[in-house]
User: Fold this.
Amino acid sequence: MPETATATSEDLGRYMVVSLHPVQPESGKTRRWHIRNRNSGATLGVVEWYGAWRQYIFTPQQFADIVLAASCLDDIARFLERMNAEQKGKKA
Assistant:
């Protein structure tokens, strides 16, 4: 698995895949990713920078019937922590 999420896609735990969103922020300072179900390919949500909190956040797909187990939430949380650490490292 890649160390950063710059590859086309990477596994996110056992049931999900993360890939760069085709539309990136205009500033070029942050990135945006899709979180998808590994089996169906359905988009579960988007990870993107939330300036008010100065960190990456996960936004669930609107109007989707999303069911996430604790392990899936942990996988998303670890991804957010990793991307936030990378973003902070860019400013150092």
